[in-house]
Give the backbone structure.
Amino acid sequence: MKVLLDECVTRKLRRDFQDHEVHTVEEAGLKGLKNGNLLRAAADHYDVLVTVDQNLPYQQNIKSLNLAVLVLAARRNNYDALHPLMAEALNALRQIQPGEEVVIKAS
């Protein structure tokens, strides 16, 4: 699965996405694009956008895109806060479909 990490997601998290092809927004040449434009551009080349922006699913019509969105919801956006969510996130990647959004929340 091709995974795109949003600008707000720490690059360190890429190593936790074993068995997936992972790029950052910067590596993909999409840095600076905002919400709708980023989603449309990503849909042409990626299967899933991983973000920490919990408002994104409410602001954009994800169902109309050939892209899924995985939201990691923790108190902070650093590796130590996001890493505990990865087991559940990897499980979600096995099932997520284009146009779907999944939110993984810290307990």
Observations:
- The radius of gyration is 12 Å.
